[in-house]
């Protein structure tokens, strides 16, 4: 089974080896049937610390690295 990949923007780089990536997507409202933008934040592992705030990155699912980290930064777009 392939691992999920998401595209998002780094919103925080204050932690060591961890980046917070905001992924936004559209979802249809159940009652009003209008498309609504949803934002989700994911903590992703960045071993070398090469990505910073504002970078557009690709993250991939991985094994649990810590309590909150289940994603790894793959590359920059």
TrEMBL record:
- BP term (GO), one: translation
Q: Which GO terms describe its cellular component?
A: cytosolic small ribosomal subunit
| Gene3D superfamilies found in the cross-reference section | Nucleic acid-binding proteins (2.40.50.140)
The molecular function terms of the Gene Ontology recorded here are: rRNA binding; structural constituent of ribosome
- Entries under InterPro entries matching the protein: NA-bd_OB-fold, Ribosomal_uS17, Ribosomal_uS17_bact/chlr, Ribosomal_uS17_CS
CDD domains membership = Ribosomal_uS17
Among the Pfam families in the record, one is Ribosomal_S17
* Alphabetic keyword roster: Ribonucleoprotein, Ribosomal protein, RNA-binding, rRNA-binding
Q: Which family does it belong to?
A: Belongs to the universal ribosomal protein uS17 family.
**Could you describe the subunit structure of this protein?**
Part of the 30S ribosomal subunit.
Q: What does this protein do?
A: One of the primary rRNA binding proteins, it binds specifically to the 5'-end of 16S ribosomal RNA.
This chain belongs to the protein called: Small ribosomal subunit protein uS17
Species for this entry = Candidatus Wildermuthbacteria bacterium RIFCSPLOWO2_02_FULL_47_9c
